[in-house]
Design brief:
It holds the Pfam family MOSC. By secondary structure, the protein is an alpha+beta fold. Helices cover 13% and strands 33% of the residues. The chain has helices at 48-53, 68-76, 125-129, 134-137; strands at 3-12, 23-24, 27-30, 34-35, 63-67, 90-93, 105-108, 112-119, 138-140, 146-148, 152-158, 160-162, 167-171. The protein starts with a strand and ends in a 12-residue tail after the last strand.
Length: 183
């Protein structure tokens, strides 16, 4: 089975529902729950809009990962965006997160493992953070299809600590690969 490697550049969490998450030296992932000490920790949905719609939904958004290359693109366009600023828990470099199939598994550091569930659906709050920034997070391809670039979501399969500098190893699922869709 083919594998790819990359690295964690930052980790973030917040105990409060807000937009940005402060960087911390390390986070601990808890199987079936998410990031210890993060407001989105839980077996069922924790995002406010999803809780309002149906609080019994499974939490397929336990961990939010974003590629540092998107931050680079935003800075090149004149925006001041750093790791954690868009609410991600884990910032990566050197890995095409958006190109991963559903069910891909990321091994982070020595022990933690996350299974990818889908794409983050960028919301208008991004423009509240910095006006006009949403256009860099969602757009359309040459066929007119919506392209979401604001990172991916996953569920924790195996506990473990994750720190900046940790290696990320990708294990692709067997069989036909299913492209990511919003979760």
């Amino acid at each position: 089975m083919p594998t790819q490697t990359a690295a964690v550049t930052a980790v973030s969490r917040d105990t409060e529902h807000g937009f940005s998450k402060p960087n911390v030296p390390a986070i601990r992932l808890l199987a079936g729950l998410g990031v210890e000490g993060d407001t989105h920790l839980g077996v069922t949905v924790q995002h406010r809009s999803r809780v309002a719609a149906d609080p019994t939904q499974p939490n397929l958004r336990q961990v939010h990962l974003m590629h540092a290359e998107l931050h680079d693109e935003m800075r090149a366009a004149g925006y001041d965006v750093a790791a954690g600023a868009l609410g991600e828990n884990i910032t990566t470099r050197g890995l095409d997160l958006l190109g991963l199939p559903r069910g891909a598994r990321l091994r982070l550091g020595a022990e933690a493992e996350v299974e990818i569930t889908g794409l983050r659906n960028p919301c208008p709050q991004i423009n509240n953070f910095q006006p006009g920034l949403l256009k860099l997070c969602v757009g359309r391809d040459e066929d007119g299809q919506v392209v979401r670039k604001a990172g991916i979501m996953g569920v924790v399969l195996r506990d473990g600590e994750v720190r900046p500098g940790d290696r990320i190893t990708v294990e692709l699922p067997q069989g036909p690969h299913v492209p990511l869709d919003r979760v």
